[in-house]
Design brief:
The complex is a heterodimer of chains A (168) and B (484). With 168 residues, chain A is mainly alpha-helical. Chain A is built from eight helices and no strands. Chain B is an alpha/beta fold. In chain B, strand 5 (165-168), helix 8 (176-189) and strand 6 form a beta-alpha-beta unit. The chains are: A mainly alpha (168), B alpha/beta (484).
């Protein structure tokens, strides 16, 4: 049996707030792309530097792959965002979010010596906001924040047999 | 809390024999749902603001979309390059019936325009002499004049006196006397005389004048103006020998030879040089936007590059105008040169709160407005759709590497776009305004009096260059007295 170190009540509230904020950001990024006249990840991916540049440029240059990438990004961000806000399937959504952020980070990593022409509102050295948000999602994933405050708590109560919460 | 009750009822069945959901689970479970509601609310609001801004930007373009229009019988007098530009724009205006085309170059320009119009179903007759056209075509209601400048006064006055409405290309006339007589003829006959300063009807210029300057006063106090029209060296227009106009005809209509007929803009007495050909359009905007006519002009110019044997007019002109605007004194610089096209043409109005950079071109500098960092925020005007949201600079300056900015250096202002695009040919709105006025549905945007004011300011530049002196305008110089 694992010894579970439960975060304090206030820490859980803080993490829940963080989850809603990250979810909000994801959802708006997704919806803004979905409703833009003609959004495409092509520009972002063509700018790619670093070890995976070849992969991202290939994605951008192949029309079929690009169409997939665009659709997955737009809908993925929106769905992950909604799930995080609601605390529904929180762990799955966190994993999905981590996946997206990892791709964004690796596509245009702020490594030493790289210069980008895509507008950025800050200054970064190796760590950028994508990486910070990714760290936040790791915390959300680890604590399963949805089971504390979120639809997961109801889903868990309805369908999960093991009376884990009662035992703890 | 209906949702909560529902869950409470459903819970026992699902979790039979197990631990059932208690009230606390449900409350905590639904605790972040309101955040989604809040998101929805913010999203809706954001879209409403965007939509309102977009609608406000579109509105000015939908002005003249009337249903049934009365057909107007039109004649074109002068079928050269400019006449063809105007004809192309007019073909997009509903309710026009072309009746006649007059041009002394029968073998080329006249034939070309007549054939084009016939192809589009207009029954047009070609004429060499405008008097013959006016005699034989009584049905004509409006004449579009695009002849060389030195013919404008005679042509416009004759057409007005024959009872036609007239759209006359700028420059109104190459002489002030001619321009004055045109104003008087329009007054005497009561017919319309629109001068072809087409920016006066351009929706972007109207938006900047009416909304950005007069209503929102975004620039604050305008103190200086800067503008230019730089054009690359233009070659002799030439003409195919077999289509040459007989010398007798050329002489009759005031041209020395075919070369002069084709390149009349290069000659004194026929045109007015680049300051008139190019500068006139923009100096007209200076006066319009500043809300006053100039008080003084200082100018320098010369024939620095071209051969005096073929070019009589200055190829380079630099001018400074003084204004006494309703808000206070202002100075305006303008240059036009015809030896290098660098940065094309634009006008820049500089106030203590912002800068407006505008041009007729839809491609280069169509319209940007820069907010001085010390000026009040412009968010309300962005929400109204008057200007775009600030534009994110696409690229950081490479050269920023080693430079050390002086603390007294002004911070870079935000750039906003003027969100009005003209998707029609540049001259179409001005022609549309003329025909709307002919049908009694609008007033002219550039009537003879306004064109005259502009001609007074512009023609004085060449005078100042010749006199090599700072010349003064009197307020009465801009008015035509002797109402008939």
């Amino acid at each position: 049996m694992m010894t579970e170190t439960r975060a304090s009540h206030w820490a859980m509230i803080g993490i829940t707030l963080m989850r809603v904020l990250v979810g909000w950001h994801f959802m708006y990024e997704g919806l803004a792309k979905l409703t833009a006249d003609s959004w495409s990840a092509a520009g972002f991916m063509k700018q790619s530097r670093g070890p995976f540049a070849g992969f991202f440029r290939w994605l951008a240059s192949d029309p079929t792959m690009l169409a997939y990438s665009d659709t997955i990004t737009m809908w993925g961000l929106t769905i992950v965002g909604a799930c995080l806000i609601l605390g529904l399937f929180t762990r799955l959504a966190s994993l999905g979010g981590i996946g997206f952020l990892l791709l964004f980070y690796l596509c245009n990593p702020p490594f030493i010596g790289y210069f980008y022409t895509i507008p950025s509102e800050g200054s970064y050295l190796i760590v950028n906001k994508n990486l910070v948000e990714l760290g936040a999602l790791i915390v959300i994933f680890a604590t399963g924040s949805g089971k504390f405050a979120g639809l997961d708590r109801i889903v868990h109560g309805l369908w999960v047999r093991k009376p884990r919460l009662a035992a703890a | 809390m209906a949702g909560e009750d529902g869950k409470d009822k459903a819970a026992p069945a699902a979790a039979e024999g197990q631990r059932k959901l208690d009230r606390r689970d449900v409350l905590m479970g639904l605790s972040t749902v309101p955040a989604l509601g809040l998101f929805g609310y913010a999203w809706r609001k954001q879209n409403q603001v965007k939509q309102a801004a977009a609608q406000a930007a579109v509105a000015p373009r939908e002005a003249a979309a009337a249903g049934d229009v009365k057909e107007v019988n039109v004649a074109l007098l002068g079928a050269g390059a400019q006449g063809q530009v105007l004809t192309e724009a007019m073909q997009r205006i509903p309710g026009l019936r072309f009746r006649a085309v007059c041009d002394i170059w029968t073998e080329y320009n006249q034939r070309r325009v007549v054939n084009t119009l016939k192809r589009y179903g207009h029954e047009v007759n070609g004429y060499v002499d405008y008097r013959e056209m006016l005699d034989k075509e009584p049905a004509i209601e409006a004449v579009i004049i695009a002849t060389p400048d030195f013919w404008h006064a005679e042509h416009a006055i004759a057409c007005l006196k024959a009872g036609k409405h007239v759209y006359c290309e700028k420059e109104m006339s190459n002489t002030l006397e001619g321009a004055r007589n045109m104003v008087l003829a329009a007054r005497e006959t009561g017919k319309l005389l629109q001068i072809g300063h087409q920016r006066r009807s351009n929706p972007r210029y109207i938006h900047c004048h009416d909304k950005l300057l007069r209503e929102a006063n975004l620039l604050g106090r305008i103190v200086t103006v800067n503008g230019q029209w730089n054009r690359a060296v233009a070659a002799d227009l030439g003409a195919p020998e077999r289509y040459a106009i007989p010398q007798a005809t050329l002489t009759q209509f005031g041209f020395k030879d075919m070369h002069q007929f084709r390149n009349w803009r290069w000659y004194k007495g026929l045109g007015g040089g680049p300051i008139v050909d190019l500068g006139s359009h923009q100096l007209d905007i200076y006066s319009w936007f500043l809300g006053s006519n100039p008080t003084h002009v200082t100018a320098s110019g010369g024939l620095l590059y071209h051969d005096p044997a073929t070019h009589e007019w200055y190829d380079t002109v630099m001018v400074i105008f003084d204004y006494m605007t309703p808000a206070g004194p202002a100075k305006a610089y303008y240059q036009t040169q015809t030896t290098n096209g660098s940065q094309g043409y634009f006008e820049t109005f500089m106030g203590d709160q912002g800068t407006l950079l505008i041009s007729e071109s839809e491609l280069n500098n169509p319209g940007s407005i820069y907010r001085d960092p010390n000026a009040p925020a412009w968010d309300a005007w962005i929400q109204k759709g008057y200007i775009s949201a600030p534009v994110v600079p696409e690229e950081k300056e490479e050269g920023a590497s080693g430079a050390i900015a002086d603390v007294r250096e002004s911070a870079a202002p935000d750039r906003h776009k003027v969100p009005i695009t003209l998707t029609d040919p540049y001259h179409q709105p001005h022609l549309q305004n003329f025909f709307d006025a002919v049908r009694g549905k609008a007033t002219l945007n550039c009537p003879a009096e306004v064109g005259y004011e502009s001609a007074v300011a512009v023609l004085k530049v060449n005078e100042a260059i010749e006199a090599n002196a700072r010349l003064a305008f009197r307020p009465e110089d801009f008015r035509v007295g002797g109402t008939a």
